[in-house]
Structures are given as structure tokens and as C-alpha cells.
Amino acid sequence: MKARVFVTLKPSVFDPQGRAIVEALHSLGYDQAADVRQGKYFLLDLNVPTVAEAEKMAAEIADKVLANPVIERFTIEVDGAAK
Amino acid sequence: MTFAVVVFPGSNCDHEAQYMAETVLGQQVRMVWHKETSLSDVDVVILPGGFSHGDYLRTGAIARFSPIMGAVKAFAERGGPVIGICNGFQILQESGLLPGAMLRNRDLRFHCEYISVRVDQTDTPFTRLCTPGQVLRVPISHGEGNFFAETAVVDQLEKDRRVIFRYTNVHGEAVDASNPNGSVANIAGVCNEQRNVVGLMPHPERACERRLGSDDGLILFRSAMDALATRGALQAV
Prior knowledge:
The complex is a heterodimer of chains A (83) and B (237). With 83 residues, chain A is an alpha+beta fold. Chain A has a single domain (2-82), classed as Mth169, Chain: A.
């Protein structure tokens, strides 16, 4: 079962890398690019039989390891899960 | 007195810490590999700077799971003095022993330079010989030292007097121009609730001899020796 975990800085946290990127976009003429937030993407291959178990395990892993709750939050997508 | 210097794969300030404690201060040093599980034979624990586990995932995020960290937590719970320097501070944050987290420096640059930090609190084992407001000249060397915590957390830290070090100018004024990385409230170092675990981004162990540019950092480790000597004297009574 494949689970995708997206980790981004919380909205309240300043993202200096995102800021540098948006400034680069503006210098390229993409004035409509209002903001950029940089994050991380993890693809987990989990040996569990059901979507529900994959979602639960991915959430646990994201919470314990992949994201630091002080500054980050995460979203999870599992193949076959209802959107 | 025995200092433990915990060595993670990627630690690179472990030998500076050893040199400072052994050669400059004349103390015993035990280099403790991160796979070890006991700290029962040491008096002070130093988590040194570096790039543990290559800083993969986040700074300190993998080192937190090293076997030795269970012993570090137990040592801290017993009231033993623990100091995390730079990456060591980040590991203590990831472990939940110290609050906050580090963001990239606000200018996205790695800063390697001498700066000034003010000692705001002297009731920790690492600052007890300092005078309140004392300004130390010590180096920083980091790309991710931008201390962040939610406003409510920072307010509580201030209320509990747990901000131990602040980036200032040479006059001890915490102005924005003296903030090298964008840290909230110019925070350079904090302690835990029990005040025996201290973390800071500057490198006091590198400022251990005049010929290196400064020996201002020694007072932190002399403080720890003083704290233990005093505690030992009290226990002997």
C-alpha cells in the first residue's frame, strides 16, 4: 500500500526558503505568484492490507518522525482512499 | 570530575569539547558512542555540535532515536547537568527535552563568526559563575539556528525565566542588528523546567583559549564543575 506524506511549515511559521523562491519568481516576471511555501514529500510503501491501516500507520509515522509538530504539519494520501 | 561527550555519526565538535574539558580544564573525559546505553559513570553530559546523521530529515531528528538518548533522558531526570551545543541543542529539542525548533537562518546563509551573547539567567549549572547580564564573546557556526516556538510558548519561557542566552551587541543590548539568524526574541539558549538541561546555538567549547580568539566559553563548564563540587559538598555534610 502506497502512502504519500506531505510535510509543510505551519502557516504561522516564516518560511525563508519559500520567500527566496517567490522573490525569484517575481524577478522572472511571475508577478501573480503571490506566495510559495516549501515542503517535503515522502512516499511510504507499507505492507498492510487495508487503506484504513495504511492511513493510520502513515499518520503515526508522520507524527512521530517525518514532521516536527512544533513547526510543521502534514497531510496524507493513500491510494484507493476516498478523497 | 568526568565529562561525557556523546559522539553521533556526523558529530564534528566532539574533539573540541574533549580538548576543552581534558586539556584546558584538566578533567576526565569519556567519549560516548551513540550506540552506548549507560551514562552512570559521568558527572556532566555534553551533546556536541556537528551534523549528526547528515542532518537528514531535520537537524537532530534521527539522532533523537539513538540508543544513548534513553540514558541522556534518565541522566537529565536524575538532575544531572546536560548541555547541548548547536546540533546538540537541536537534538535536545527533537527529543522533547528542550522547547522550540530551529528554522533556517532568515537570510538562508550559514553563519560562522564571533558574536555576543548575554547571560540572562544564572541559576543553571552552566551559568552559576556568570553575573546576570554578562556578555560573552563566542562563535556561532550554523545554517539552522533560527529559534522558533509559538508565541504562547515563548511567553511562558520568558515568564519561567528559561531564556538563558540572548544574541546582543557588545553592550548587551538585544537589538535586531545583533540577531544573526532571526531567532524569536533573540533567543540563543534555553533550559528545561528543572533548569539542569541547557541548550545553546553558540559554541562555548570553541572559545576556550585566548589564542583561539576568546576564552569566554570556559565559564559555562567551570560553572558545571562548581555546581557539582557544591552538590558534592552538600551531600558529604
